[in-house]
Design goal:
Elements: H1 2-37, H2 44-49, H3 51-74
Helix pairs in contact: 1-3
Length: 77
């Protein structure tokens, strides 16, 4: 009985972590897209930051979002 409860609890935790990782990955990758396309879409706040900073920060967001996506799909918690 307790083993079934622990297994259900583990599966629930794994599902929650997977959803959290995938959601965070989408947010970070979305932020990278906004940083990369800020000049083309004429977003004033992004243009004010400067091209170098927006590309640097966008690259970091893309790498971290990719890592979160990988970790969410791997499901090894």
């Amino acid at each position: 009985m307790e083993a079934d409860f622990r297994e259900k609890q583990r599966k629930s935790y794994t599902l929650m972590r997977m959803i959290y990782d995938l959601t965070m990955a989408l947010l970070f990758i979305g932020m990278a897209v906004v940083m990369f396309g800020g000049e083309a879409w004429k977003i004033e706040r992004i243009v004010e930051l400067g091209r170098t900073f927006s590309w640097f920060f966008g690259s970091i967001c893309l790498l971290y979002g990719g890592f979160r996506l990988y970790r969410g799909l791997k499901k090894d918690y």
